[in-house]
Amino acid sequence: MKVYLLNVEGAGPVFYGEKLDKAAPRGGVRGWLEKQHRRWLTSLRRAENSIGATTRRVEGWLERRVPPDEALLRSLRDANEIEIFHPTTISETEAARAWREYLVRARNRHLRWLLVDLLIVPLTLLLMPLPGPNFIGYWFVYRAICHALALLGARRALNAEAKWRLTAAHELDATFSDEHAEKIAALARRFNLAHLRPFVAKMRARAKSQAVALAPEVQKTD
Prior knowledge:
alpha/beta, 7 helices, 60% helix, globular
């Protein structure tokens, strides 16, 4: 698996990766949940009543809160080898330190949210008597599984169960923004990254929303 250390404007250094191999259909509980999720979304998009519209807005809001790097972390649990491409402006030592620090933060973050979701899931059983699908209950079960998989991926990489090596690439020396379409397209072509532009846009949007949320706190301290 290949991972890229990018400088995203406003978000700082971030790690990005894509799983190039076409994934086989998932089995077990997660596969069932993903199948139900897709089926539910299809019926939801076709619904034209007020309940459907409201639920679509809630679902969209929840989806936007999923961290853009979560797919990378979940993929790490299947990786045997990881090649980390980093800008030539930093050394291998700095890149390795940034990678380890990122994995530690990701592990702690997903462990925290896994525990929160597991605490919330039993409370959503109270919604079962209501008509329609228990979307809230389903969502927290699904998110708990996603957090668990991301946690496993981060721990696997941290424990060196997946061998990783570092490679400097001058194409990563630039700072990327969703406004730099040509630079992003060139990088995507160079490394065959199909979803790079949406990732950068999501990271930028997330960084902007966090900056807005912190602004009142900054004003209070001034």
